[in-house]
Amino acid sequence: MYEKKDKKPGEIKPKLTSLAELGEFGLIDRLTRDVKYYHPETLRGIGDDAAVIDAGAKVLLLSTDLLVEGIHFNLTYMPFKHLGYKAAVVNISDIAAMNGIPRQMTVSLAVSSRFSAEALDELYAGIIMACDKYKVDLVGGDTSSNVKGMMISVSIIGEAKKEEVTYRSGARSGDLLCVTGDLGSAYLGLLILEREKSVFQIDPEMQPELTGFEYQIGRQLRPEARTDIRNLLVGIGIKPTAMIDISDGLASETLHICKQSGVGCKLFEGKIPIDPYTRELAKEFKIIPSVAALSGGEDYELLFTVNQGDYEKIKDIAGITIIGHMTAASEGKYLITPDGISVPLTAQGWDGMKSK
Ligand code: ADP
Ligand code: MG
To answer: Among 127, 172, 225, 287, which is disulfide-ready with 84 (CB 3.0 to 4.6 Å)?
Structure first.
């Protein structure tokens, strides 16, 4: 029998840490705990939606995202063109979350031989469509074969004036917590696609029934980045104290702001903006509508905080909802139900590595 030479009899093997134990954010913290920054122009490294690099008159914002087949997208119902569009948009959204303007991106692709050139043409048509809409230059990338499936990694550069940048860490006790658009529809879109996928798999003759759900499916397959919010806020004379985009779900993103800013929060469940039909559909799927917003994710709206003194300026702006406020860290992080009951705010977003 084979015995490892350096193993002494009776020696106890060190316990290895499973990734499930750590979760995605625990893993990132662990991997990056010894990272040092050597250059003073690195104004912000790991920990925000984008790194912030001093470039003289302006700052550069740098962000990257990886999309993996079977984890982030399912090609059974995700057309290649939409996939390309979404891969670009999720990166553009990170620049919007820093209050910056997207400028250049690179696209790296690993594909197995299962894919045709025509399929990848479609993928690129989607990427280029997003570049055209958001005026981003596609300036490079990398291409590799892959044993199985597809992976797309997009990196993006944005720019802003130094004083315009909004970090996750700038929220203060008393600030108002605001969100753009409405939440939860992208998750309902996913549930509808998953339901129709199984119908389709049982009987391939049956066509998936997707009419009537265009808004929810559109939110899932073809999200948009809120690059418009920067100008809207400038127009009403507001600079957010902190900002993040909603990729994982409202709860998870709110907790990121709390953690990075060292504050607590009161988030009022009844104030969360949810499309009326999404609300109905959620009930059909036997989920509480606010849970779709809090834990569903992929809405790519912006969550931000503003100074309490800005209340008058922001309270009547269409498409922006005040959903709560920040408190002292010692007061905790709470969701207040419509009945006035306080429950601790917890994140159950797409923390894909945690066992459910
Ligand atoms: P987002 O959801 O906005 O894309 P993430 O939650 O993926 O951000 O990442 C949180 C922070 O951790 C970001 O600043 C990101 O750059 C950093 N990060 C994520 N993965 C790694 C990694 N493997 N090595 C170094 N930094 C990482
Ligand atoms: Mg982000």
So the answer is: 127
Instruction: State if residue 49 touches ligand 1 by the CB under 6 angstroms criterion.
Output: yes
Strand partners, 18: none
> Which residue's alpha carbon is at the smallest distance from atom 23 of ligand 1?
28
Q: How far is the CA of 246 from the centre of ligand 1 (A)?
A: 14
Atom 21 of ligand 1, nearest CA residue: 28
In this prediction the pTM is 0.92
Name the phi and psi angles at 66, rounded to 5: -120, 130
Q: How far apart are CA 33 and CA 18, in angstroms?
A: 18
List pLDDT tens digits, range 70-118: 999 999 889 999 999 999 999 999 999 999 999 999 999 999 999 999 9
**CA 323 / ligand 1 centre spacing (Å):** 26
Domains with residue ranges and CATH for the chain: 42-164 (3.30.1330.10), 176-344 (3.90.650.10)
Q: Give the model's confidence band at 206: pLDDT under 50 very low, under 70 low, under 90 confident, else very high.
A: low
Give the integer Cα–Cα distance in Å for 326 and 174.
5
Instruction: Tell me whether strands 176-180 and 302-306 are parallel, antiparallel or unpaired.
Output: antiparallel
Ligand 1, atom 15: closest residue by C-alpha: 46
Distance 46 CA to ligand 1 centre (A): 6
pLDDT tens digits, residue range 283-294? Answer: 999 999 999 999
> Of all atoms in ligand 1, which is nearest to the CA of residue 45?
14
Q: For residue range 1-32, what is the model confidence (pLDDT) as tens digits?
A: 454 555 566 777 788 999 999 999 999 999 99
Number of the ligand closest to the Cα of 243: 2
Mean per-residue pLDDT of the chain: 93
Q: Ligand 1 centroid to 158 CA: how many Å?
A: 16
DSSP string for residues in 272-324: S---HHHHHHHHHTT--HHHIIIII-----EEEEE-GGGHHHHTT-TTEEEEE
